[in-house]
Amino acid sequence: MSGTVMLKPEPQPITACTVSRDVQNFDLLIEDMETCLGESWGDLGFEDALPFLQQEEASELEFIAIALDAEDEQDLSIISEIVRAAKAHNIKVLLIAEDVSPTSLHGLLREGGDEFVPYPLPEGELAQAINRVLTPPPAAPVAPEMENKMKATGDRNGVLIPVQGMAGGTGATTLAVNLAWELANIDAENPPRVCILDLDLQFGSVSTYLDMPRREAVFEMLQDTEMMDSESFMHSLLSYDQKLQVLTAPTDVIPMDLIGPEDIQRIIEMARTNFDYVVIDMPTTMVEWSETVLQAAHVYFATLELDMRSAQNTLRIKRALQSEQLPFEKLRFVLNRAPKFTDLNGKSRIKRLAESLGISIEVQLPDGGKVVPQNADHGIPLAEGIAKNPLRKEIAKLAQSVHEVNQSAEAATA
Q1: CA-to-CA distance for 380 and 186, rounded, in angstroms?
Q2: What does the CA dihedral 41, 45, 47, 49 come to, rounded to 10 degrees?
Q3: What is the pTM of this model?
Q4: Is 90 exceeded by the pLDDT of residue 363?
Q5: Distance (Å, rounded) from C-alpha 349 to C-alpha 306?
Q6: Which of 37, 88, 223, 368 has its CA 20 to 30 A from that of 6?
Q7: pLDDT tens digits along 185-220
């Protein structure tokens, strides 16, 4: 007697799990998980996730997607435990968050979260996030000449010099990069140790001005500054001509408030104890940790131009700082693209601008012309490409003045 044997398909192995208070609250996540993984995924509640992750079956998981919203934010302790348990078993962690504060996300990322995706999920974003965490791009090798060979000393008390534009395009990065380079070359016999920190975390371009790659090591360091030591900090720096050490902005655009005042304070202190001069290229926007930098600064250069947007923004900054009783007097205003010496009308405009804003414009930088942005596109300092440019000469004078003031202060305290 012949018959037909019905073979039942073997169930597909579970390679991923969603973890949430109630996955039905994240219907778009269910749809995207089915699209990406078919039936090879499961769902766990917060209370069930920890026991499951201790079982042998959990070793087959490639990642978990933790979905949370504002209600879950009231107590993140169990979610933090789930993240730590997953990382202990080398399981990748995606965070799917709706109406969750950057502070909470920052904490979960520091616990070991690998990727954050906002909810509602943008089209195709979950698939891209899964691909990123499961197949991370190989780290680009650093050219030997850019490797930071300078060792940590921990015995310095560096001068902190932030530079911030009062409006976009006022030359803040140009000033920061070239001021740092001039300081690094100020004394051929006894060159000071100089570093520049690009804290414009989203669109910082110090790396472009010096033709350097952005590195994943910077983001890793920023994520966990509590674990940062001198060695890891120095490892995150690149070197330009083995004279200027550079902390570039991260590879990807990250939220400005992903790091807080405590993180910035640690980075500043680490830089100051290892360098004589620490130049910071600040973002144009004011953020939570702007006050931290201002309080720590020895001198704070603010670049502006002879236009209405610079004037209005300067007035806003002045009112904001003075209303919070912050040290507005630390700001030294730098007028970029200043009128020529023979332009009497221009000089009158500068005087009226300073009087109307109630500030003193202490430094005037000339317009270096089209060759300045062209030189930046080549990724070299002004002194290397257009040494005789009037803008370069004025920045060199400013660096000399800063160095002389610092030397005088050191001599007075000796």
Answers
A1: 17
A2: 20
A3: 0.70
A4: yes
A5: 8
A6: 37
A7: 999 899 999 999 999 998 899 999 999 998 888 888
Q: Residue written as tokens 């202190």?
A: 269
Q: Burial level of 384, CB count in 10 A (0-12/13-18/19+)? A: middle
Would you report the helix, strand and coil content of the chain in percent, each value rounded to 5? 45, 15, 35
The two tokens of residue 261 are 């005042």
Residue 41 pLDDT more than 60? Answer: yes
pLDDT of residue 409: 85
DSSP helix/strand/coil, 43: strand
Instruction: Locate the DSSP E strands across 360-406.
Output: 361-366
pLDDT of 382: 97
Query: In 4-62, at which residue ranges do the beta strands (DSSP E only) sit?
Result: 16-20, 41-45
Count of C-beta atoms within a 10 Å radius of residue 128:
12
Residue position matching structure tokens 């949430």: 20
pLDDT > 90: what percent of the chain?
64
pLDDT digits (tens, 9 = 90+) for 280-289: 999 998 999 9
For residue 390, the Cα-to-chain-centroid distance in whole angstroms is 31
Nearest 5°: phi and psi at 93?
A: -125, 120
CB 237 within 8 A of CB 247: yes
**Contact (Cβ atoms closer than 8 angstroms) between residue 328 and residue 322:** yes
* 109 Cβ contact list (under 8 Å, min separation 6): 95, 116, 223, 258
Task: Answer for the pair 137, 148: CB distance below 8 angstroms, yes or no.
Answer: no
Q: Which of 183, 188, 213 is nearest to 198 (CA)?
A: 213
